[in-house]
Amino acid sequence: MLNFTKIEIFRNLTQPATITELSEILKFDQSTISKAVDSLEKDGFVVRQKKGKEVHVSRSDSLHSQALKDIILEFPRIPWDKIFTTSSLHVLGALECKHSIADIAGMTGLDRRTVSSAIRESGKYGIILKIGNKYILSERHSLVRKFVSNFWQYVTNKKLRDISLESVLIWQRGPEFLFKLDNESDMNVTEVKNCKIQPTAINVFHKYGLKILSDTAYFFCTKRNLRPEDYFIHTILIDPHSPIYNSYALAFSSKLEQADLFKIGRHYNMENHIEKLLEYLATMKKNSDFVLPWNEYESLLKDLE
What we know:
single chain, Arc Repressor Mutant, subunit A, 14% strand, 14 helices, two-stranded antiparallel ribbon, alpha+beta, 8 strands
């Protein structure tokens, strides 16, 4: 994604410059510079401005562009073109909490060898740390965390605009995101590349014998195929503090294995929430503000079935 040419262009844009000027500074062909600038502009790192007969390139004021500028200034010797590859950005985006290689592979859709390679490269510079058999972003590299978070937010917002101007983001991590639409006919999926737009949450419950009527359509954008356990989590994510949506998720959980729920829960950093819900099912007693009194849950469950 950010190869050597792009990093060097960005590094040297301390002030606006033309393609010709960048070519003279970096000793690259103008065609190479032009293609790299096109890519940087598409990803929100730079902008073009016409001044008279010339077009000047400058760093954009996007949050991820500013974060990259700070990273290069503070850590000029780290080869960021090897750290911020496409696969590495997927891995870094998954490491908000500690995860194993198997977890990261499941979250990103990458194979384990690719995940291991990305971890190894970032680990050389202390960006990713190993704790037991799990990995996490180093607190020392908070700028990297900020950059990765802002970059994926930019990508997500861009995709949402392509899908529909009426779409509302509910949850996002790395390139994956959950969103809703009040009118499904407003959605345009032809413009979204490298991403499957799949119905999820309560909108698929009817396939499992649960009847929930909703005027809102929920979708998840990801490269991987969704599993029933994802539907369970996405229902909670609509509003984790809502007793109703947690009850809908619990009603759906009867169709699934508890071990699978905990496994997928790790992928979404929701193990504690799921543990609390399953404890509620086992004791049949209200144990938090995000569940209904047991008799009300039983009534809701009866209506759904």
